Amino acid sequence: MSKIRVVHYINQFFANIGGEEKADYPAELRVGEVVGPGLALAQKFGDEAEIVATIVCGDSYFNENLEKAKAEILEMVKGQNADLFIAGPAFNAGRYGVACGTVCDMIKEELGIPVVTGMYVENPGADMFKDKVYIVPTKNSAAGMRDAVGKLAPLAMKLAKGEKIGASCEDNYMPNGIRVNLFEEKRGSKRAVEMLLKKIAGLSKEGEVDEAVYAEYRRKFEDALCNDLNTSMAITVLYDLLKADCNDVTKRKLAASFDEVLSLGLFDGEKAEEKADDVDAELVSYIEAKIAERKEAKKAKDFAKADAIREELLQKGIVLEDTREGVKWKMA
User: Fold this and answer.
1) Cα 236 → chain centroid
2) How confident is the model at residue 299, as a pLDDT?
3) Interstrand relation of 49-56 and 28-31 (parallel, antiparallel or unpaired)
4) Is residue 149 helix, strand or coil?
5) What digits encode the pLDDT tens for the residues 141-200?
6) Dihedral of the CA atoms 12, 16, 18, 20 (nearest 10)?
7) Helical H runs in the chain?
8) Chain-centre distance for alpha carbon 319
9) pLDDT (0 to 100) of residue 190
10) Alpha-carbon distance 212 to 231, whole Å?
């Protein structure tokens, strides 16, 4: 299978040409060259994709010669038979962000190939283009390059492969205001929790907690809660944690501390299993018999008896839960 062909757009600064004094640098095509952030992107792509060309354009040149620059860049991309176009990331550089959004929108409309860029949420380019192209949120400076590339590359690959793009919190792009009616057997909130449970269940319990990482994510979590009790942002911190480059035991300890506030029941399954290990076979047999008896009472529409059986079990510390898959029980 051939590699995905990527064309990458950057400004004069990230091409190591210069700063503001070189902002009038004209659009230039560098075939076969991987420059600046492209090196990190290429590493993330591995054998799946290759940057076949880099387009460099000064921020002033682009914005002061808008139509000319757009036409030049469009012709450059056309000649590369690209499968994917990536611009930036621009972080909080305003003119660069607007250029990235403008070029991505043009390439998407004119050539019909997937596009993606990245920038800080307060970059003017974000407000202008987040409802037109996929934009990955970044930190406000190039110090956040590693984080930005870590979000850009996976989303870019999904777009290039034509895979279904999930919610913005799942695939790390700015909400674009598009609402789609999805008919699922389970509610989105339940599916999201199940995804978290699955990820946490796969975490190893071995190793030592990285105290520096623990402190960093506790601070992010607390900052979210202190921001007018922003629980959605707090949950985003949890998602970011599970994707972070740190050991599993640190993730487990942080997730457990977060859940003390969020009350998502992320570790209830483990606690139930631990309690179940202490339940003897005779008690299990008794519970199952009571569940069967209650089922027959409900069939006979003897709801008073069914409720009495539930209450009897509850008095013994056994909680019944009626689910689509049948009655489940757990120790209180």
Assistant:
1) 8
2) 87
3) antiparallel
4) helix
5) 999 999 999 999 999 999 999 999 988 888 889 987 665 555 555 555 566 677 777 888
6) 50
7) 37-45, 59-64, 66-78, 94-111, 124-129, 145-161, 168-171, 188-201, 211-226, 231-243, 248-262, 268-277, 281-299, 303-315
8) 35
9) 66
10) 23
Residue with token string 């560098």: 30
Q: How far is CA 299 from CA 27, 134, 294, in A?
A: 76, 53, 9
Distance, first Cα to last Cα, the chain: 54
> Which residues in the chain belong to E strands, given as ranges?
4-10, 28-31, 49-56, 84-87, 115-120, 134-138, 318-323, 326-331
Residue 239's SS3 state is helix
Nearest to 236 by CA among 117, 93, 121, 86: 121
pLDDT band at 16 (very low <50, low <70, confident <90, very high): very high
Q: Which residue has the tokens 């674009």?
A: 176
Is the pLDDT assigned to residue 206 strictly greater than 60?
Answer: yes
Site of tokens 């409802």: 131
DSSP SS3 for 323: strand
Q: What digits encode the pLDDT tens for the residues 259-284?
A: 888 887 787 766 555 555 555 677 78
Other C-beta atoms lying within 10 Å of the C-beta of residue 133: 26
Q: Which of 125, 108, 92, 235 is closest to 159 using CA atoms? A: 108
Q: Please state, in angstroms and rounded to a whole number, the distance separating the CA atoms of residues 90 and 139.
A: 10
Helix (H, G, I), strand (E, B) or coil at 174: coil
Rounded-to-integer distance, Cα 245 and Cα 172, Å: 16
Answer yes or no: is pLDDT of 300 > 80. Answer: yes
Task: Report the percentage of the chain scoring pLDDT > 70.
Answer: 90
The Cα–Cα gap between 319 and 330 comes to 5
What is the DSSP-derived secondary structure letter of residue 20? G
Tokens encoding 43: 């590493």
Q: In 59-192, at which residue ranges do the beta strands (DSSP E only) sit?
A: 84-87, 115-120, 134-138
Task: Tell me which residue of 135, 136, 82 sits closest to 107, measured CA to CA.
Answer: 82
- CA pair distance 87, 93, nearest whole angstrom: 13
Q: What is the dihedral of CA 13, 124, 140, 172, to 10 degrees?
A: -110
